[in-house]
Amino acid sequence: MENQGFFSRLKAGLTKTRNQIVSGLDAVFTASEIDDDFYEELEEILIMGDVGVHATQNIITQLKAHVKVAHLKRPEECREYLISSIREQLTTDENAYAFEERRSIVLVVGVNGVGKTTSIGKLAMLLNKQGKRVILAAADTFRAGAASQLAVWAERADVEIIKGAEGQDPSSVLYDALQAYRARKADVLLCDTAGRLHNKKNLMEELKKMNRIIDRECPDAYRETLVVLDGATGQNALNQAREFNEATPVDGVILTKLDGSAKGGIAIAVESELHIPVKYIGVGEQVEDLQKFDANSFVDALFLQS
């Protein structure tokens, strides 16, 4: 993470996850031998910690191979390799933040209640601090108060916002925002999109329509779609990411509300099962509580006891 202060908040935010996973591992590693029961208990602990079935299977398979090659005999000898294997499941590409360095259009998707609008506001502030000219598009026109909420964040972040009337066609708001983006020569356009239930066909059709408008109006712009997931919902978050990715290819995840949740392992599941990088992580309400995701810091915060 970018600073020690955030690492401390991250470590505190992952306390429940750490208690659930690490306390279970401590018990398993005191077993007398490495046998089928050892692997089964390990698998159960990881899955209960929302690490995900796919990632857990990868981790167990790698561990078994390592035990055989290294001729390990005692469970406690597996601890460091296990942590290393978990770390390997998290691979945020070095180009993950390319949109910050180019003229970009970013669609932000996610169901209602995950912290989507708030995350957009915090991201706008982070980009503004980098000296970027940011425009917000309030295209979540179906949720009462969404545009007003985003307008508060726009004022706080000192960025421009383009919004329409409640109930207006979201794509028309995006169209107006694209004209402003071109006219102002802005660096980044962040578009808040409708957050109706992810299994509603009309929402997915709306996203496809928005992408067609961007294709037509700004064909040369660098584009990304970020999905905001509520980390506290565990496997539901994974399912939401999968559904959105089927409707419009998702480039990254903003994982929110990990503070106070026992489901922090979902970050590992998302990357391992969907191959979508977690790009930002949120562990609180303050602006500085949204930061770029760093796999090493995340795993350290999860497993370091001191």
Shape: elongated
Q: Which structural class should the secondary elements be placed in? A: alpha/beta
Radius of gyration computed on alpha carbons: 21 Å
Secondary structure: helix percent: 40-55%
Number of helices: 12
Instruction: Give the spatial strand order of the biggest sheet.
Output: 3-2-4-1-5-6-7-8
- H/E series: HHHHHEHEHEHEHEHEHEEH
Q: List segments where confidence is low: pLDDT < 50 over at least 5 consecutive residues.
A: none
Measured distance between first and last alpha carbons: 18 Å
Number of strands: 8
Strand content of the residues, in percent?
5-15%
Overall mean confidence score, pLDDT: 88
Give an account of the 3D structure.
This protein is α/β, with parallel strands linked by helices and 306 residues long. 50% of the residues lie in helices and 14% in strands. The protein contains 12 helices and 8 strands. Strands 3-2-4-1-5-6-7-8 form an 8-stranded mixed beta sheet, with helices on both faces. Helix 2 (15-28) packs antiparallel against helix 3 (36-48) and helix 6 packs parallel to helix 7. The radius of gyration is 21 Å and the shape is elongated. The two termini are 18 Å apart.
Secondary-structure blueprint:
Elements lengths: L3 H10 L1 H14 L7 H13 L4 H18 L8 H10 L15 E6 L6 H14 L4 E5 L7 H12 L2 E4 L6 H14 L4 E5 L8 H17 L4 E9 L4 H13 L4 E5 L9 H9 L3 E5 L7 E3 L2 H9 L3
Parallel strand pairs: 1-4, 1-5, 2-3, 2-4, 5-6, 6-7
Antiparallel strand pairs: 7-8
Task: Compose a concise summary of this entry.
With 306 residues, the chain is of the alpha/beta class. It is 50% helix and 14% strand.
